[in-house]
Amino acid sequence: MIRTRPATVLRSSRGLFAASSTISHRNYSTLPLSIPVTLPNGTTYDQPTGLFINNEFVYPKQRKTFEVISPATEEEIAHVYEAREEDVDSAVQAAKKAFEGGWSDADPIVKTRALTKIADLIEEHAETLAHIESLDNGKSLQNARGDVALSANVFRSSAGWADKIGGKVIETGNTHFSYTRREPLGVCGQIIPWNFPLLMFTWKVAPALVTNNTVVLKTSETTPLSALYICKLIQENNLLPPGVINVINGFGKITGNAITEHPTIKKVAFTGSTATGKAIMAKCAATLKKVTLELGGKSPNIIFDDANLETALQSAVAGIYYNSGEVCCAGSRLYVQEGIYDEFVAKFADYAQNKVKVGNPFEEDTLQGAQNSLNQLDKILHYIKLGQDEGATLLAGGERLPQKGFFIKPTIFGDVKEDMKIVKEEIFGPVITVSKFKTVDEVVRLANDSEYGLAAGIQSEDVNKCVDVARRLKAGTIWVNTYNDFHHMVPFGGFGASGMGREMGEDVLNNYLQTKAVRTAITQK
Ligand code: NAI
Ligand code: MG
């Protein structure tokens, strides 16, 4: 058993996973603001259930809750409270007050200390956080541990930027003194998805705070738990003034929409589907909010004849089965050069079928855990059927595991045509297509033939070819002889329909700053 829930909480229907309009909201005014949850490793911790506003966990005005489940068991973990428009407004007012009340001018040392301490706490609570993440999202514990480690690094690295953000003196001659300042935007709305709940929280919150902004962040409706846990750590250790960070649970069309419409919010940072990203950007036009978007992808991973086959195999596997394939930059289109095609594809299919362990996320050697929701499972199974209907050949997988939980076997499609939907559209699961190519020019053309441009992989031992192809591929990240290989100082973000703006590294700071130019006329003496 993985949960503890108060006797007053009834089990809700699976309707949560259908369109949000079918969710049955219920009033559970007796649900405490914190409940004990027992993790699969036997540890019991206190899980906050409320909205985190002004450094306190509070009830929403309407006191509605929604169910949070474990995708690996389909069992309930907890209920959490749902924010509606009026609660979004409370969070925004708290963030505005914190911004105007001092955070907009917070001293660099204050920010360094706070963000460093958050990094320390993430490391101290790493095992609990990894277990919460795995339980809530379905991902394997080994993947969740990686997310936690990168999250700590992002906070620690962001702390280091605090005293390095500044403008320039601009030489304009003796008549004037001209300089620029880099100033915060104000209250930032942040909307994150369910595939990396803790990591996306970190990628959004750390750079916003170090640039003196305040935050209202909405977690995904299927994965609210780890962000609330971090808020508890922030609260217990008194790390930030009230209102600097506010975290609310809720659904896209209600809570998310209230963020995009709120006139006080100056910027929206979003990670999620391209369709929702477009809708958010259109909404933000009404109040002229700045927008950064990290959206979908259909990234090519290219394996040349001269690749080290073992390295290339590991890159292909990490490219598609890491995080159960629920990765915006997944290497979901594999291009293999003709000289090694048969040998490589046979090896890859064998590996997918026999060496990628799928199932209980908490077993140490499980690579691929559960898909995040019934919706996502259905979407992936729909694409697998579509691939077969389109005439592609299943080389591995292609079905759900015959057990409880949303598990899909690692799947490979061969004999694909470039205009098939399974080659064109984002599936967001452990499903990859394999195509054969002859020349460099041909594969560059095929790789770039996508509306997306989030990432691409190149597997080759020829450094000249790697540098040349890396220049020619249209994508925000190029991985050479590796894949899905993130670093907290390396910027990440998309070309084209994959979005705008960059996260991590120095680039992300630009998303949260605006330049003020000061030009002073000098009286000549
Ligand atoms: P989504 O993009 O609709 O949801 C992501 C976040 O946006 C969630 O927090 C959601 O509550 C919020 N949201 C939804 N509609 C909104 C609206 N109108 N206004 C403001 N916020 C809104 O993605 P969803 O439905 O969870 O997944 C659908 C597909 O999106 C997946 O199958 C996958 O292909 C893609 N996706 C891509 C992600 C990425 O990292 N690029 C992450 C999650 C999903
Ligand atoms: Mg969940």
UniProtKB/TrEMBL annotation:
The active site is at E294. Residues 60-518 form the Aldehyde dehydrogenase domain. This is Potassium-activated aldehyde dehydrogenase. GO terms for biological process: acetate biosynthetic process. Keywords: Oxidoreductase. It comes from Cerrena zonata. SUPFAM superfamilies: ALDH-like. InterPro entries: Ald_DH/histidinol_DH, Ald_DH_C, Ald_DH_CS_CYS, Ald_DH_CS_GLU, Ald_DH_N, Aldehyde_DH_dom. Pfam families: Aldedh. GO terms for molecular function: oxidoreductase activity, acting on the aldehyde or oxo group of donors, NAD or NADP as acceptor. The gene is ALD4. Belongs to the aldehyde dehydrogenase family. The keyword Oxidoreductase applies.
